[in-house]
Design a protein that fits this description.
Layout lengths: L1 E6 L4 H4 L4 H8 E2 L7 E7 L5 E6 L5 E2 L15 E7 L4 E5 L2 E5 L4 E4 L6 E5 L7 E7 L7 E3 L5 E5 L8 E7 L10 E7 L5 E2 L4 E2 L3 E8 L7 E7 L2 E7 L3 E5 L6 E4 L4 E8 L8 E2 L7
Length: about 280
Amino acid sequence: MTQSEFRYAHHPEDVKKYSTEDLRREFLIDDLFNEDKIKLVYSMYDRLIVGGVMPVSTALKLEPTDDLKAGHFLDRRELGIINVGGSGKVTVDGEVYELGNKEALYIGKGTKEVVFEKEGAEQPYFYINSAPAHHTYPTKKITKNEAEIVELGEEKYANKRTINKLIVNSVLETCQLQMGMTELQPGSVWNTMPAHVHARRMEAYFYFDLEEGQTINHLMGQPHETRHVFMKNHEAVLSPEWSIHSGVGTSNYTFIWGMAGENMDYGDMDGIKTNELK
């Protein structure tokens, strides 16, 4: 079964007037994983689709939603998958890919059938991002050993972290989708600080590995007009092109960043000095 939602884009002047309830309704994506269901959110920000797939007792096939007006989900799209749970498998046009915890799979445009299944005793949680595609690139599995890894941050600033670039153009070819995973070390709680924006692409953050009972304060908005959204484990948030995307947790955690837009250069960002945020 597939559940789908549609989200419009927003002008930053309008977002300044949003209440807490408004912000959460428009940008927060909660309840991502439901037993034997696929949940998809279609965003008008670069037409990114954010989703969660949780196969428990049955295999789940990725079907096109009404918003796509397509015969197959990937007729005009590419797909990125990162498993944040126990072992599972994804069957792509008959070929089986086993995905362990924190392993990724890229699937190219034109694929006809994608099926998700549980494998083993532990529950897999497949987090997915999809973007429009103009060309077909090969399906490829990416493990953490194959990722481009960057170590950033310092303990004294509570932001010591490991960035795993999984589905990025330095690892494999894609049309526009870029995905990676940032793991914060124990004692570190700040991500993506100093903050930045990049008007040439939007972003979505998905938070996981957060200790039960803890929370993350996700920061968004224009650098001079910031807002915040408190989030729990296994929740995602949309970040417009004009918005910062940073956060701080009450314990360490891991998050997945996914991007779509016209520039795939990871370093394409306009930085904001920390003491200039408002």
